[in-house]
Amino acid sequence: MAGYKVPGFSDRAAASREAKAAALERLRNKAAPDPAVVAARAAAREAKAAAEAE
């Protein structure tokens, strides 16, 4: 049975590069937000801010 191999700099850099590429791919594949939902959240946020200002 082989012992634990301490990853070198190039191994860590490659793992980081792959993780960044995977995160970017997930971000690209993410669906755009629904405009109706965005408008509803903005209205709720404005109503809350107005209530706090009073």
Structural account:
With 54 residues, the protein is mainly alpha-helical. The chain has helices spanning 9-29, 35-53. It is elongated and about 65 Å long. It has one domain. The chain contains two helices and no strands. The termini are far apart. Pfam families: DUF6481. InterPro entries: DUF6481.
Task: Looking at this protein, list some descriptive labels.
single chain, 54 residues, mainly alpha, 2 helices, DUF6481
Poorly predicted ranges (pLDDT <50, ≥5 residues)?
Answer: none
Percent of residues in helical segments?
Answer: over 70%
Number of helices: 2
Estimate what percentage of residues fall within beta strands.
Answer: under 5%
Overall spatial form: elongated
**Total beta strand runs:** 0
Mean pLDDT: 93
Give the terminus-to-terminus CA distance: 70 Å
Q: Would you tell me the structural class of the helices and strands?
A: mainly alpha
**Could you say how many structural domains there are in total?**
1
Order of helices and strands: HH
Measured on Cα atoms, how large is the radius of gyration?
A: 23 Å
What profile does the largest beta sheet have? none
Layout of secondary structure:
Blueprint: H1 9-29, H2 35-53
What is the gist of this entry?
With 54 residues, this protein is an all-alpha fold.
